[in-house]
Amino acid sequence: MSDIKQIISLLSNPTEKDTKLIEKAYNFVTVSHDGHLRKSGEPYLNHLLATARTLAELGMGPVTISAGLLHDAIEDTDIKSEDIEKEFGKEILFLVEGVTKLGHIKYQGSSRHNESLRKLFVAMSQDIRVLIIKLCDRLHNMRTLEHVSKEKQLRIATETLEIYASIAYRLGIKKLQRELEDLSFKYVYQEDFKKVEELSKTKRIEQEIHLDKFLKSLKKELAKNEMTAFHTDYRVKGLYSLFKKLKRKEWNIEKVYDVLALRVVVSTIADCYKVLGIIHSVWRPLPGRIKDYIAFPKTNGYQSIHTTIFTGDGGIVEIQIKTDEMYKESEYGITSHIGYKQKQNGAEQKSSLSLSWIRKLLPIRKSWNEETGQEKSSLNLDDVPGWVKDLVDYQKSAKDDKFLDDIKSDFLDERIFVFTPIGDVIDLPKNSSVIDFAYSIHSDIGEHMSGAKVNGKFVAINTVLHNGDRVEIETKKNAKPTHKWLEHCKTTIARRHISHFIENLKK
After folding, report:
1. Catalytic site residue 91?
2. Given 57, 75, 115, 162, which residue is catalytic?
3. Do residue 176 and residue 270 come from a single domain?
4. Is the residue at 408 inside a domain?
5. For the purposes of burial, counting CB atoms within 10 Å of the CB of 198, is it exposed (0-12), middle (13-18) or buried (19 or more)?
6. Is 75 known to be catalytic?
């Protein structure tokens, strides 16, 4: 019982009702999974507790944590859906069944793998909590992956790296993404993992020396400028993230400045810019290494100011400046918003966190009012669009042979923000072209595009776009796409519209 008490202790101001619900779920699975063992030989209950603990660490509520404990009950025991509903209500049953459906098809062969992914994305559109439980379930499975066969290790790790870690990134859940990536990296690229691990260790020791000296000087400068409301810590770059950067830098570790980064966490956005000003007034920044993700957040909602400076003793240090709320969002992403109503002094109050970007990700979530017994929705239809809806719409008509490649390319790859002439933000996969931009605005714009300007200059329509570009499309009635355009498209939606247009033209 001490395990479940530790999980409950992670909740923010749990009520007696919250505690009783989680304890009831724990007692239920203790009985239903009695005698069940994992391949490691440990009790199956340990896996359920680990899943529930991660959910609690992410700040999820008692309903989701209880569903996390129960998530394998229907799949692996004699417990039926009616039993879950009778004991825990419709909302928890909805979540448990959502996770159960994802487990029905094992990942064997391309077509079955694709079918599983389709189910994952549909579940994701129905209730984001189903996906978060699945991510936490997968995390513990990755932590214990050494107990399965070598063939399964590679298959599960590859899928985790390509799909689950990428989804965690898009939802902004750095806490899950980082560990899922590094655990998978160890199995998918074994030799590279050992090489990166050694390079990281060496570079980290070197950077720690400069960082410790710099931190003392920084605190003095901030105090001198009457900045006292802040705290600092270190961030160690994940091994898989470092691996990707090393490949871009031709494996030269000396060109990677953020193996170890200093975080300065302050109270307000104004303080973020004040700290940046103080730092730059004393230490010289590296040109081109100042990134303002507060004014222009990353596509997954990440906000911070990054600057890299010369420390004056031969060292180079990256500094990340953010508020407490930005720090929380950078680690917990969408999960920091799902339960954004917090109970304070017995009254329910709305969090001050901005929900504008997250509402673009959140699908309609249906839940049940236990008192009235009626279904309710927490978001309206206007909040559904964005990549979650696009992904669900896409998977309905996608062909199996290209499904996984298109999903990774269109939805899970690195993203860029591009601006329309009036400042609207268009979210595109990295390496998208002007053609992709035009079709993402509207198929009519794409089909009648005659020219384009990027940042005020005329460019070819096959020009690859970069983060922050401002794009203006020119159209003519008699303009039309050609087969050549297909060679310069990154997005499936552009390729599909162009192919469809050419087919119709032939007919």
Report:
1. no
2. 75
3. no
4. no
5. exposed
6. yes
